[in-house]
Structures are given as structure tokens and as C-alpha cells.
Amino acid sequence: MKRLHVFLILFIMLSILLADDIWVFVEALNMRSCPSLRCRVVKVLSYGTVLQEMGRAVYTDSYDWIEVLGGWVAMQYVDYVPIEVVGDLPIDFDLNYSERPLPPHYRPSDLVELPREVTTKPGLMLRQEAAEALVKMLEAAQKAGYRLKVTSAFRSWEYQRKIYVAAIERYGPDQRYVAKPGRSEHQLGLAVDLVRADMKCALEKCFKDTAEYSWLIRNSWKFGFIQPYIKYNILYEEEPWHFRYVGKDAAKKYMSDFELP
Ligand SMILES: [Zn+2]
Prior knowledge:
Blueprint: H1 3-18, E1 21-24, E2 28-32, E3 41-46, E4 50-52, E5 55-60, E6 63-68, E7 71-74, E8 78-80, E9 111-113, E10 125-127, H2 128-143, E11 148-152, H3 157-171, E12 191-196, H4 211-219, E13 225-226, E14 242-245, H5 248-256
Antiparallel strand pairs: 1-4, 1-8, 2-3, 5-6, 6-7, 9-10, 11-12, 12-14, 13-14
């Protein structure tokens, strides 16, 4: 065999070994002959198909593409194979630094319903420890003169997938508003979206200019909540209403090297 061939074969074997497995998380996904919507559909892949990433990523038609054996798939509808989880994840589990997403079946066992008077709609749930801390935090806010409510808390994997696919349809494939299923802290049962009771600036950037936000940033860590994206956010649009429970110690540590505005 020619030396070049040996190198080529070694190179291909090495790239396959180093490649990460990815999986299809939508019901059906077109595999195309080249990285563009204009390319021919070679095959339709079903939910759960595991593929090997051979290369990436060309930005065409607003999609990013991954080369797999036999064609190309849009990166927007695949992710790394989820982590394996047995039981409940630790309270300070850092999803943003996890390369792989949460599995579809992950749902904490200790979810409790939040008191109706602190939510904008019925049936919102958090893990017990986070729910208790949240109620204390909102009571303290009220004492300080700020009325806040929870408008989103635990979200199942399936619900996250639904809003993710809807966000792509509405804002396009390069949207940065909604996380992929398995990538949302809401699935951990440890994140809330907070709004003012009068709904002023609800889920809008201007929430950041409210006195309520300012109170939260100064005080939420005392109750174990932080804003996980105030430091190194490159993934998502800024979400000043999103707070994540990590526990008092982790929150204190997080805030110790963050300068309050
Ligand atoms: Zn959120």
C-alpha cells in the first residue's frame, strides 16, 4: 500500500475515533447531499438516530451544518448524545459547562407546586429546596416594596423541544432566544423567569432598568439564586428575568468575583 493511503486511512480512523456521537432530537430530519437547503434530501432520519460527526460547519441558509456519514444535517436539530442521569442532579449542577445535554426522561423527583399567589399562572413547579428559597426571596422583595411573580419555572424536555422548534419557525434558525431541549436550566427545576406583578417589561430587555431587577441582582444570591448569564454568556440573548437556584454557598461564591453594577 502506498504511504499516502496508509496516512489517509489512519487519518480517517482517527477522525472517527475522535468524533463525538450526536443524535437527532426531532421526529424527522432531512439528511442532505450537501450543506444547504437547496441540496437533495438523501434520507429522512427519525428521532433518536445516533450519528457520527465527521465535520462541520458551514453557515448557509441561516443553518449550521454537520457532516455525517452519507450526507449533511442541520446542527439546529441535533445535539451531542445526552448525559446519563440516575436520580436527581446536585443542586449546583452546571448545565452551561456540560458538553452534553440532559436526557429527555430527566425530571427531578422532588418538584413541588409554587404557591399560586407568587405565580402568574397555576401549576408552576420547582424542586422543593428552590421553591422554599424562592418564596422567602419574594417575601423579602415585597417587604422592600417590590412585587414580583414567577411566570415560568420547571419545563419538561418535551415542552422545551416544542418551544424551541416554534422559536426557529418564528425567528429563524439562528435565533438565540430559546435553548435546545436538554439545554435549558428550566428542565433542572431550578430556574425561574420573574416578572413584576403589574407585568411592566415582562420578559423584555427593559426589565433590566426596573428597581425590581436592581433589588434582585443585589439580593437574590443571599437566597441562593444567581443570574447564570451575567458573566460569560455567548450562547443566548441576555435574559435579565432568568434566575437560577444554585444554593446559598455556590451563589455567594459566584457573586464574590462579580462586580455589582
Ligand atoms: Zn428562563
